[in-house]
Write a structure and sequence with these properties.
Helix 3 runs antiparallel to helix 4. The protein is mainly α. It contains four helices and no strands. The two termini are about 30 Å apart.
Length: about 120
């Protein structure tokens, strides 16, 4: 949770930082929706952990979270991939891709948070 604010609020007019320069209001909305995904995903994560076992659920949660963490910087720094530095404009962000990635991050976190209390052990 420390990495995400740095990626989403950094940048702006700086030529060295990459990020989306989001406002505090938008950052609050991002965290609100991530929390909503976690709350709504909790029952499904619990059923998954009970069905497949806590070890499988923990590994799956780790893979989902790690993949999303590795993808968010790429989404935030797409301006660097076009060859020259272009300050990132939030209006040009691929919001559906960012939302999907953050949703995967939230689901992975939900699996990690609920798997250790699973009924079934492999």
């Amino acid at each position: 949770m420390t990495l995400l604010p740095l990626l989403l609020t950094g940048g702006g007019t700086s030529t060295t930082a990459t990020g989306m320069a989001l406002s505090a209001t938008v950052m609050g909305q991002v965290y609100m929706w991530m929390s909503a995904v976690q709350v709504l995903g909790n029952p499904a994560a619990g059923r998954f952990a009970d069905k497949t076992g806590k070890h499988t659920a923990i590994v799956t949660g780790g893979i989902l979270t790690s993949t999303a963490m590795a993808t968010v910087p790429v989404i935030c720094a797409y301006g660097l991939m076009v060859g020259e530095y272009v300050p990132l404009d939030p209006s040009e962000t691929n919001w559906p891709l960012l939302a999907a990635t953050l949703g995967i991050w939230s689901l992975g976190g939900t699996l990690l948070a609920t798997s250790h209390v699973s009924q079934y052990t492999n």
